[in-house]
Amino acid sequence: AQSVTQPDIHITVSEGASLELRCNYSYGATPYLFWYVQSPGQGLQLLLKYFSGDTLVQGIKGFEAEFKRSQSSFNLRKPSVHWSDAAEYFCAVPYNQGGKLIFGQGTELSVKP
Amino acid sequence: KAGVTQTPRYLIKTRGQQVTLSCSPISGHRSVSWYQQTPGQGLQFLFEYFSETQRNKGNFPGRFSGRQFSNSRSEMNVSTLELGDSALYLCASSLVFQGRTDTQYFGPGTRLTVL
Question: What residues 83-112 of chain A have any CB closer than 8 A to a CB of chain B?
Answer without folding.
Answer: 90, 94-103, 105-106
